[in-house]
Amino acid sequence: MSNLIRGISENGGVVFCGVDSTEIVRTAEKLHTTSATCSAALGRLLTGVSLMGAMLKDDGDSITLRVSGGGPAGVVIACTDAHGDVKGCIDHPLVELPAKENGHLDVGGAVGKDGVLTVIRDNKLQKEPTVGQVPLVSGEIAEDITSYYAYSEQIPTVCALGVLVDKDLSIACAGGYLLQLLPGATDAEITRLEQNIAAMPSVTEMLRAGKTPQDMMELAMAGFDPQVLDTREVKYQCDCSEERTKDMLLSLGRKELVKLRDEDPKCEVVCHFCHTKYEFDLNELLAETTPEEK
C-alpha cells in the first residue's frame, strides 16, 4: 500500500503532497535511539524533506535540510532523493524536555529558534548546489519549512507535520502534507483553502483515526476536485557503502592519511545516518596512493 500521494486541483492551481511517514520515523527512532522529543524533531524533519523530495522534477536531484537553532538537541539534518526516500541524524538524540502546557512535545525548545533553516538543493544539471537559508520561525519544523517557501521561493505554502510518540517511546504514527498555490490563484480560492485547512484536525489526529494521505488531500482540497497525480512507497534508506567511504578517505590525500596511519593503522568510520561501521587498513589505502600526492 502506497504511503505518499501527490495530487493537483482540477484547474491546476493547487498542488498537494501527503505522506504517512510512520515507518520512516520508526526506523529513525530505532537507529538513533531518540528520546520522545527528539523522535518528534527528527521525525518531522524527515517527513518534511520526504514531501519536498517527492515534488522534485528530476530523478537525480536531492535536497538536504539542516536545522541549527541553538537548542540542546543540536543540529538536525534530513536528506531526500527525488523519490522521497530519506535519511537523517540529530546531534544529541537523548535530549528530553518537559511537555508544553498543551501537553505537546516541546520540539521548538529542543531544536531552538535562534538560528537558521538551510535548504541545499542538488540539481544534476548544475555544477554547484543551490543553497537557501531562512531564520527559524519557531523551531517546530513545519512553520520553518512554510517560511522557507514563502521567502526563498516565493511560493505560498502550507506545511503540516506530526509525530505522535507513545509512553513507551515507540512511534504511534507520523505524517504530514504540503499544499502549494501556483501563480494565478484567485482570492476566492485562497479563502476556500484557508477555511478547509482551518477545519482540519491535526495530522496525528487524522492518522490515529485511520485517515490516509488521500483522505488528507480530499479534506484540504474540498471544492477543488483534486486529481491524483501519482502514489508511491517512500522509506528510510541510507546510501552509504564501503566503496563510497573508501573514496571519502582517499579524498583526504596521502599526507592526511599518513597522519591518521601514524596514530593507528586501523581506521573505523561510522555512518552518521545509519550507524553502519566500515573498517579499513590505512597501510593498504596508502598503497593505492602515490608518494607525490599531497
TrEMBL record:
Redox regulated molecular chaperone. Protects both thermally unfolding and oxidatively damaged proteins from irreversible aggregation. Plays an important role in the bacterial defense system toward oxidative stress. The lineage of its organism: Bacteria, Bacillati, Bacillota, Clostridia, Eubacteriales. InterPro entries: Heat_shock_Hsp33, Heat_shock_Hsp33_C, Heat_shock_Hsp33_N. Disulfide bonds join 238-240, 271-274. Under oxidizing conditions two disulfide bonds are formed involving the reactive cysteines. Under reducing conditions zinc is bound to the reactive cysteines and the protein is inactive. Belongs to the HSP33 family. Its main location: cytoplasm. This is 33 kDa chaperonin.
